[in-house]
Amino acid sequence: MQLPQPLIHGKLIKRYKRFLADIELDNGEMITAHCANPGGMIGLKEPGIDVWLSKSDNPKRKLKYSWELCQIGDAWIGINTAHPNAIVEEAILSGKVPELAGYETLKREVKYGKNSRIDILLSDHDRGLCYVEVKNVHLKRDEDVPGLAEFPDAVTARGAKHLDEMADMVAEGHRAVMFYLIQRTDCDRFTLSTDIDPHYGERFKAARSNGVEAIAYDCSIDTDAVTVRSALPIVGL
Fold first, then answer.
1. Is residue 237 part of a domain?
2. 86, 137, 182, 210: which could join 167 in a potential S-S bond, CB 3.0 to 4.6 Å?
3. With contact defined as beta carbons under 8 Å apart, do 231 and 213 qualify?
4. What's 169-180 look like in SS3?
5. 65: phi > 0 → left, psi -120 to 50 → alpha, else beta; which?
6. Alpha-helix residue ranges (DSSP H) falling in 10-83
7. CA-based angle 41:188:163, to the nearest 5?
8. Beta strands of 125-187 (E only): which ranges?
9. Average pLDDT value over all residues in the chain
10. Do both 216 and 121 map to the same domain?
11. Which residues span the domain enclosing 23?
């Protein structure tokens, strides 16, 4: 997925109220940017880290800037949680996800379950329906295993609800796949952070036992684009 061009570099001052970030641009200007990320952003909100912003020309927008990426050492991280569905859709349509290849149609944001919307619904005359729930992953703590990506980075009751609803779809005879999109360039495996949200871990285990599939892919990231790169092993689950 192509990012808005050109991106603007700055240094993070602070992230606060979940959706706001104060940033100093390279020219010394101090701005407040929209942070499209409701999670904990553990390790990604330290003052002084390098950040990259897009700027909107929409005169009706209160905040002109949106926080898109950050860079820590050699690692690039995508923090905008509005992008993963489009990134995964592009990857499926271009054949980069063999597990989800061969379906006739792809639709986004289709109503299902209990007042929910599935991120991607694949359908095929012979294979039926495949419900794909996309989760953005950018947590990496490196406490025990370097390169380990984890989800979630905060308690997510909504995420646990989605797991139960995906299991319901399998019970109805459909296919259901959890797609964990790792928007980082420095990870080589994926697991769940059950210490952060034990309930999510429990519902994941129940969903898997009821036929819900899980896959994890990392991304290639730079200031031009974020694209799906390759499958990563899911460990410890």
1. no
2. 210
3. no
4. HHHCCCEEEEEE
5. beta
6. none
7. 60
8. 128-137, 139-140, 148-151, 175-182
9. 95
10. yes
11. 8-78
Look at residue 113 in the predicted model and tell me its pLDDT: 81
pTM over 0.70: yes
- DSSP labels, 189-237: EEEE-TTT-HHHHHHHHHHHHTT-EEEEEEEEE-SSBEEEEEE--B---
Residue 3 domain-assigned (yes or no): no
Matching residue, tokens 């970030």: 21
Distance CA 189, CA 145 (A): 9
Residues 87-111, mean pLDDT to the nearest whole number:
97
Are 90 and 72 members of one domain? no
The residues, ordered by sequence, that sit 6+ positions from 57 with a Cβ below 8 Å of its Cβ are none
Instruction: Choose one of 48, 78, 108: the last residue of a domain.
Output: 78
Radius of gyration of the chain (CA): 18
Q: What is the pLDDT of residues 101-133, one digit of tens each?
A: 999 999 999 999 888 899 999 999 999 999 999
| Domain stop point among 78, 109, 126 | 78
Looking at the structure of the chain, the number of domains it has is 2
